[in-house]
Amino acid sequence: MTDKPSEGSSISDEEWEKFVRDAERDGASAAPKEPSARARMVTERLRRQEARGELPAGWRTGPAWQETNGRSARRRKVWSVLGVLLAVAVAVIALKPSAALSWLPGGSGADPDTPSASPLEGETTRPSGAPADVAGQPTRKQPFAGSPAERWATGADAIELPKAKAVSGVSAARIENALRLTKKFLVAANLDRDVLYGAEPKEALALLDPLSKKYVDRLRAGLRRPTVENDPKWNFTRFDPDEIELVGTEVRVRGRMTVEPGEGKGGRALIRADYTFVYPVAKAGGGEEVTRTIVRRAVQVDVVDPVKYQATEGRIWLLDLSSEIGNDACRQGDGFIHPRFQADLYASPEPSGEVVDPYDRSRGLDGAGTDSECGTLSRT
Known about the structure:
single chain, alpha+beta, 2 domains, six-stranded antiparallel beta sheet, two-stranded parallel sheet, 8 strands, elongated, transmembrane, Tat pathway signal sequence domain protein, transmembrane helix, membrane
Protein backbone atom coordinates (compact mmCIF):
# COMPACT_ATOMS: atom_id res chain seq x y z
CA MET A 1 0.00 0.00 0.00
CA THR A 2 1.19 3.58 -0.68
CA ASP A 3 0.01 7.14 -0.20
CA LYS A 4 0.54 7.84 -3.93
CA PRO A 5 -1.76 6.81 -6.83
CA SER A 6 -1.36 3.26 -8.08
CA GLU A 7 0.77 2.57 -11.13
CA GLY A 8 -2.32 2.00 -13.29
CA SER A 9 -3.76 5.42 -12.49
CA SER A 10 -3.92 8.11 -15.19
CA ILE A 11 -3.19 10.85 -12.59
CA SER A 12 0.38 12.11 -12.73
CA ASP A 13 2.49 12.80 -9.62
CA GLU A 14 2.27 16.52 -10.29
CA GLU A 15 -1.55 16.40 -10.43
CA TRP A 16 -1.70 14.43 -7.16
CA GLU A 17 0.54 16.89 -5.31
CA LYS A 18 -1.50 19.82 -6.63
CA PHE A 19 -4.69 18.12 -5.45
CA VAL A 20 -3.29 17.69 -1.95
CA ARG A 21 -2.17 21.32 -1.77
CA ASP A 22 -5.56 22.54 -3.03
CA ALA A 23 -7.35 20.33 -0.51
CA GLU A 24 -5.26 21.63 2.41
CA ARG A 25 -5.73 25.23 1.30
CA ASP A 26 -9.46 24.86 0.81
CA GLY A 27 -9.80 23.07 4.18
CA ALA A 28 -8.10 25.97 5.97
CA SER A 29 -10.36 28.57 4.35
CA ALA A 30 -13.22 29.87 6.43
CA ALA A 31 -15.69 30.19 3.50
CA PRO A 32 -16.49 27.35 1.08
CA LYS A 33 -15.59 27.88 -2.64
CA GLU A 34 -17.11 26.55 -5.85
CA PRO A 35 -14.76 23.77 -7.10
CA SER A 36 -13.01 24.48 -10.40
CA ALA A 37 -13.54 22.36 -13.51
CA ARG A 38 -10.12 20.79 -13.04
CA ALA A 39 -10.89 20.02 -9.40
CA ARG A 40 -14.16 18.37 -10.44
CA MET A 41 -12.27 16.30 -13.01
CA VAL A 42 -9.72 15.20 -10.43
CA THR A 43 -12.46 14.40 -7.95
CA GLU A 44 -14.24 12.25 -10.53
CA ARG A 45 -11.04 10.37 -11.27
CA LEU A 46 -10.48 9.76 -7.57
CA ARG A 47 -14.04 8.51 -7.21
CA ARG A 48 -13.54 5.98 -10.00
CA GLN A 49 -10.17 4.88 -8.56
CA GLU A 50 -11.73 4.41 -5.14
CA ALA A 51 -14.48 2.27 -6.73
CA ARG A 52 -11.81 0.09 -8.39
CA GLY A 53 -9.89 -0.22 -5.06
CA GLU A 54 -6.81 1.60 -6.38
CA LEU A 55 -6.52 4.16 -3.51
CA PRO A 56 -5.00 3.46 -0.06
CA ALA A 57 -7.27 2.87 2.93
CA GLY A 58 -7.96 5.98 5.03
CA TRP A 59 -6.98 8.39 2.22
CA ARG A 60 -9.97 10.62 3.05
CA THR A 61 -8.95 11.17 6.68
CA GLY A 62 -5.15 11.17 6.73
CA PRO A 63 -2.76 11.69 9.71
CA ALA A 64 -3.97 15.17 10.62
CA TRP A 65 -7.55 13.93 11.27
CA GLN A 66 -6.29 11.00 13.34
CA GLU A 67 -4.13 13.32 15.46
CA THR A 68 -7.11 15.60 16.06
CA ASN A 69 -9.25 12.64 17.07
CA GLY A 70 -6.49 11.55 19.51
CA ARG A 71 -6.46 14.94 21.21
CA SER A 72 -10.24 14.85 21.51
CA ALA A 73 -10.07 11.41 23.11
CA ARG A 74 -7.49 12.65 25.61
CA ARG A 75 -9.67 15.62 26.46
CA ARG A 76 -12.59 13.29 27.05
CA LYS A 77 -10.47 11.19 29.40
CA VAL A 78 -9.41 14.24 31.38
CA TRP A 79 -12.96 15.45 31.77
CA SER A 80 -14.03 11.96 32.82
CA VAL A 81 -11.51 12.04 35.69
CA LEU A 82 -12.58 15.54 36.66
CA GLY A 83 -16.17 14.37 36.64
CA VAL A 84 -15.35 11.58 39.08
CA LEU A 85 -13.48 13.99 41.35
CA LEU A 86 -16.39 16.42 41.23
CA ALA A 87 -18.78 13.64 42.20
CA VAL A 88 -16.56 12.69 45.16
CA ALA A 89 -16.36 16.33 46.27
CA VAL A 90 -20.15 16.65 46.18
CA ALA A 91 -20.48 13.49 48.27
CA VAL A 92 -17.97 14.77 50.87
CA ILE A 93 -19.77 18.11 51.15
CA ALA A 94 -23.06 16.30 51.67
CA LEU A 95 -21.69 13.95 54.33
CA LYS A 96 -19.24 16.24 56.11
CA PRO A 97 -19.47 19.97 55.31
CA SER A 98 -16.76 20.84 57.85
CA ALA A 99 -14.20 18.84 55.91
CA ALA A 100 -15.08 20.66 52.68
CA LEU A 101 -14.77 24.05 54.39
CA SER A 102 -11.32 23.14 55.63
CA TRP A 103 -10.13 22.82 52.01
CA LEU A 104 -10.75 26.52 51.43
CA PRO A 105 -8.04 29.11 52.21
CA GLY A 106 -8.63 30.21 55.79
CA GLY A 107 -11.43 27.66 56.12
CA SER A 108 -12.73 27.17 59.63
CA GLY A 109 -14.09 23.67 59.19
CA ALA A 110 -11.17 21.85 60.89
CA ASP A 111 -11.57 18.16 61.59
CA PRO A 112 -12.80 17.82 65.19
CA ASP A 113 -10.38 14.91 65.70
CA THR A 114 -7.46 17.30 65.21
CA PRO A 115 -6.63 19.82 67.97
CA SER A 116 -6.67 23.32 66.48
CA ALA A 117 -5.23 25.30 69.40
CA SER A 118 -1.78 26.73 68.83
CA PRO A 119 0.95 25.75 71.34
CA LEU A 120 1.82 28.15 74.15
CA GLU A 121 5.16 29.86 74.43
CA GLY A 122 7.42 28.56 77.19
CA GLU A 123 6.80 29.78 80.74
CA THR A 124 9.39 32.31 81.88
CA THR A 125 7.80 33.76 85.03
CA ARG A 126 5.13 32.73 87.50
CA PRO A 127 1.68 33.18 85.90
CA SER A 128 -0.63 35.82 87.34
CA GLY A 129 -3.58 33.42 87.58
CA ALA A 130 -5.07 30.10 86.59
CA PRO A 131 -5.56 29.29 82.89
CA ALA A 132 -9.04 29.68 81.44
CA ASP A 133 -11.47 26.79 81.29
CA VAL A 134 -11.38 24.69 78.12
CA ALA A 135 -14.43 22.99 76.60
CA GLY A 136 -14.34 19.29 75.82
CA GLN A 137 -14.04 15.85 77.36
CA PRO A 138 -10.99 13.54 77.15
CA THR A 139 -11.19 10.55 74.81
CA ARG A 140 -8.66 7.99 73.65
CA LYS A 141 -8.22 9.95 70.41
CA GLN A 142 -8.01 13.32 72.19
CA PRO A 143 -6.84 12.60 75.75
CA PHE A 144 -6.06 16.29 76.43
CA ALA A 145 -9.41 17.66 75.24
CA GLY A 146 -10.96 19.98 77.81
CA SER A 147 -7.59 20.62 79.47
CA PRO A 148 -5.27 23.66 79.35
CA ALA A 149 -2.51 21.08 78.73
CA GLU A 150 -3.85 20.67 75.19
CA ARG A 151 -1.64 23.65 74.31
CA TRP A 152 1.37 22.60 76.41
CA ALA A 153 4.60 21.17 75.08
CA THR A 154 5.26 17.44 75.22
CA GLY A 155 7.74 15.39 77.21
CA ALA A 156 11.37 16.19 77.93
CA ASP A 157 11.49 18.91 75.24
CA ALA A 158 9.16 20.99 77.41
CA ILE A 159 11.87 21.27 80.09
CA GLU A 160 13.96 24.08 78.69
CA LEU A 161 17.18 25.12 80.40
CA PRO A 162 17.98 28.80 81.01
CA LYS A 163 21.24 30.23 79.78
CA ALA A 164 23.93 29.38 82.31
CA LYS A 165 25.80 32.26 83.99
CA ALA A 166 28.18 32.41 86.93
CA VAL A 167 26.19 32.94 90.14
CA SER A 168 27.51 33.81 93.60
CA GLY A 169 31.01 32.52 92.92
CA VAL A 170 29.84 29.31 91.16
CA SER A 171 31.15 29.11 87.59
CA ALA A 172 28.87 29.13 84.54
CA ALA A 173 30.19 25.70 83.53
CA ARG A 174 29.23 24.22 86.90
CA ILE A 175 25.80 25.87 86.74
CA GLU A 176 25.24 24.53 83.22
CA ASN A 177 26.11 20.99 84.29
CA ALA A 178 23.81 21.20 87.33
CA LEU A 179 20.93 22.45 85.15
CA ARG A 180 21.44 19.53 82.78
CA LEU A 181 21.48 17.02 85.67
CA THR A 182 18.37 18.59 87.22
CA LYS A 183 16.48 18.13 83.95
CA LYS A 184 17.74 14.57 83.70
CA PHE A 185 16.40 13.88 87.21
CA LEU A 186 12.96 15.33 86.40
CA VAL A 187 12.74 13.24 83.24
CA ALA A 188 13.87 10.04 84.97
CA ALA A 189 11.45 10.56 87.88
CA ASN A 190 8.37 11.71 85.95
CA LEU A 191 8.62 10.75 82.27
CA ASP A 192 10.45 7.42 82.10
CA ARG A 193 7.87 4.96 80.75
CA ASP A 194 9.03 2.05 82.91
CA VAL A 195 8.92 4.18 86.05
CA LEU A 196 5.42 5.38 85.17
CA TYR A 197 4.38 1.73 85.11
CA GLY A 198 5.78 1.09 88.58
CA ALA A 199 9.44 0.21 88.00
CA GLU A 200 12.14 1.35 90.43
CA PRO A 201 13.47 4.79 89.41
CA LYS A 202 17.09 3.62 89.28
CA GLU A 203 18.37 6.38 87.01
CA ALA A 204 16.80 9.11 89.14
CA LEU A 205 18.27 7.62 92.33
CA ALA A 206 21.70 7.32 90.69
CA LEU A 207 21.71 11.09 90.06
CA LEU A 208 21.44 11.97 93.74
CA ASP A 209 24.60 12.84 95.66
CA PRO A 210 25.52 9.84 97.85
CA LEU A 211 26.81 12.30 100.45
CA SER A 212 23.13 13.04 101.20
CA LYS A 213 22.93 9.48 102.50
CA LYS A 214 20.09 9.96 104.97
CA TYR A 215 17.79 11.39 102.31
CA VAL A 216 18.68 8.76 99.70
CA ASP A 217 18.26 5.92 102.20
CA ARG A 218 14.78 7.19 103.08
CA LEU A 219 13.78 7.21 99.40
CA ARG A 220 15.02 3.66 98.91
CA ALA A 221 13.21 2.48 102.05
CA GLY A 222 9.95 3.96 100.76
CA LEU A 223 10.34 2.14 97.46
CA ARG A 224 10.95 -1.17 99.23
CA ARG A 225 8.19 -0.79 101.85
CA PRO A 226 5.96 2.21 101.11
CA THR A 227 3.86 3.70 103.87
CA VAL A 228 1.52 6.66 104.14
CA GLU A 229 4.29 8.63 105.83
CA ASN A 230 6.99 7.53 103.38
CA ASP A 231 5.24 7.09 100.04
CA PRO A 232 7.54 7.32 96.99
CA LYS A 233 4.75 8.81 94.86
CA TRP A 234 5.63 12.16 96.41
CA ASN A 235 9.01 11.95 94.66
CA PHE A 236 8.43 9.70 91.63
CA THR A 237 5.38 9.41 89.36
CA ARG A 238 4.27 5.77 89.41
CA PHE A 239 0.99 4.03 88.54
CA ASP A 240 -0.07 0.46 89.32
CA PRO A 241 0.05 -1.37 85.93
CA ASP A 242 -2.62 -3.82 87.12
CA GLU A 243 -4.97 -0.91 87.69
CA ILE A 244 -4.05 1.87 85.26
CA GLU A 245 -3.22 2.18 81.57
CA LEU A 246 -1.53 5.27 80.18
CA VAL A 247 -3.48 6.61 77.20
CA GLY A 248 -1.30 7.44 74.22
CA THR A 249 2.42 8.15 74.36
CA GLU A 250 2.40 11.82 75.33
CA VAL A 251 2.76 13.53 78.69
CA ARG A 252 2.17 17.28 78.59
CA VAL A 253 4.56 19.42 80.63
CA ARG A 254 4.74 23.08 81.61
CA GLY A 255 7.02 24.98 83.94
CA ARG A 256 10.30 26.83 84.27
CA MET A 257 13.77 26.56 85.73
CA THR A 258 15.69 29.44 87.31
CA VAL A 259 19.00 30.04 89.05
CA GLU A 260 19.62 32.41 91.97
CA PRO A 261 22.26 32.95 94.68
CA GLY A 262 22.20 30.35 97.43
CA GLU A 263 22.50 30.80 101.17
CA GLY A 264 25.77 31.92 102.73
CA LYS A 265 28.40 34.45 101.84
CA GLY A 266 29.24 32.96 98.47
CA GLY A 267 30.13 29.81 96.61
CA ARG A 268 26.54 28.51 96.50
CA ALA A 269 23.80 28.81 93.88
CA LEU A 270 20.22 27.54 93.97
CA ILE A 271 18.35 25.98 91.04
CA ARG A 272 14.56 26.14 91.29
CA ALA A 273 12.63 23.83 88.94
CA ASP A 274 8.82 24.00 89.02
CA TYR A 275 6.97 21.76 86.54
CA THR A 276 3.47 20.35 86.11
CA PHE A 277 3.04 16.98 84.35
CA VAL A 278 -0.34 15.88 82.92
CA TYR A 279 -0.97 12.16 82.41
CA PRO A 280 -4.06 10.86 80.53
CA VAL A 281 -5.09 7.46 81.92
CA ALA A 282 -7.77 4.79 81.65
CA LYS A 283 -8.49 1.67 83.62
CA ALA A 284 -6.29 -1.28 82.68
CA GLY A 285 -7.79 -3.74 80.25
CA GLY A 286 -9.08 -1.24 77.70
CA GLY A 287 -11.41 0.94 79.76
CA GLU A 288 -13.22 3.52 77.65
CA GLU A 289 -13.38 6.34 80.19
CA VAL A 290 -10.34 8.61 80.07
CA THR A 291 -9.34 10.91 82.89
CA ARG A 292 -6.17 12.77 83.81
CA THR A 293 -3.81 12.97 86.75
CA ILE A 294 -1.90 16.23 87.19
CA VAL A 295 1.38 16.12 89.12
CA ARG A 296 3.33 19.22 90.07
CA ARG A 297 6.93 18.99 91.28
CA ALA A 298 8.94 21.87 92.77
CA VAL A 299 12.61 20.92 93.12
CA GLN A 300 15.44 22.88 94.74
CA VAL A 301 18.99 21.87 93.88
CA ASP A 302 22.06 23.17 95.71
CA VAL A 303 25.05 23.93 93.44
CA VAL A 304 28.34 24.64 95.24
CA ASP A 305 31.89 25.72 94.60
CA PRO A 306 33.91 22.53 95.35
CA VAL A 307 36.74 24.64 96.80
CA LYS A 308 34.45 25.83 99.61
CA TYR A 309 31.96 22.97 99.94
CA GLN A 310 32.05 19.22 99.60
CA ALA A 311 29.99 17.64 96.80
CA THR A 312 30.16 14.66 94.45
CA GLU A 313 30.89 15.45 90.80
CA GLY A 314 28.17 14.47 88.35
CA ARG A 315 25.46 14.30 91.04
CA ILE A 316 22.87 16.71 92.40
CA TRP A 317 22.08 17.66 95.97
CA LEU A 318 18.32 17.99 96.55
CA LEU A 319 17.60 20.62 99.16
CA ASP A 320 13.83 20.17 98.79
CA LEU A 321 11.22 18.40 96.67
CA SER A 322 7.62 19.55 97.09
CA SER A 323 4.74 17.88 95.27
CA GLU A 324 1.05 18.20 94.58
CA ILE A 325 -0.96 15.39 92.96
CA GLY A 326 -4.30 16.15 91.38
CA ASN A 327 -6.74 13.26 90.91
CA ASP A 328 -5.40 10.64 93.30
CA ALA A 329 -7.30 8.47 95.76
CA CYS A 330 -4.96 9.99 98.37
CA ARG A 331 -3.13 8.46 101.32
CA GLN A 332 -3.14 4.89 100.04
CA GLY A 333 0.46 4.45 101.11
CA ASP A 334 1.36 1.77 98.55
CA GLY A 335 3.77 3.78 96.39
CA PHE A 336 1.36 4.35 93.49
CA ILE A 337 -0.92 7.14 92.29
CA HIS A 338 -4.55 5.99 92.05
CA PRO A 339 -6.59 8.13 89.63
CA ARG A 340 -10.33 8.31 90.30
CA PHE A 341 -12.95 7.70 87.60
CA GLN A 342 -16.67 8.49 87.52
CA ALA A 343 -17.57 5.04 88.85
CA ASP A 344 -15.23 5.61 91.80
CA LEU A 345 -16.86 8.95 92.57
CA TYR A 346 -20.29 7.34 92.59
CA ALA A 347 -19.07 4.67 94.98
CA SER A 348 -17.52 7.14 97.42
CA PRO A 349 -17.96 10.93 97.68
CA GLU A 350 -15.26 13.43 96.79
CA PRO A 351 -12.99 14.55 99.65
CA SER A 352 -14.37 17.53 101.51
CA GLY A 353 -11.12 19.48 101.68
CA GLU A 354 -10.19 22.73 99.96
CA VAL A 355 -11.13 23.03 96.28
CA VAL A 356 -7.94 23.20 94.22
CA ASP A 357 -7.30 23.91 90.54
CA PRO A 358 -4.37 21.63 89.62
CA TYR A 359 -3.58 23.77 86.56
CA ASP A 360 -3.17 26.96 88.58
CA ARG A 361 0.58 27.54 88.50
CA SER A 362 0.26 30.98 90.07
CA ARG A 363 0.06 29.32 93.50
CA GLY A 364 3.17 28.60 95.51
CA LEU A 365 4.04 24.97 96.24
CA ASP A 366 6.85 25.06 98.77
CA GLY A 367 6.25 22.61 101.58
CA ALA A 368 3.46 20.64 99.85
CA GLY A 369 3.70 16.86 99.97
CA THR A 370 2.92 14.09 102.42
CA ASP A 371 1.33 16.43 104.97
CA SER A 372 -1.08 17.93 102.47
CA GLU A 373 -4.76 17.29 103.08
CA CYS A 374 -6.84 15.49 100.45
CA GLY A 375 -8.70 18.30 98.71
CA THR A 376 -11.31 18.51 95.97
CA LEU A 377 -10.29 19.19 92.36
CA SER A 378 -12.04 21.86 90.33
CA ARG A 379 -11.10 20.07 87.08
CA THR A 380 -8.84 17.41 85.61
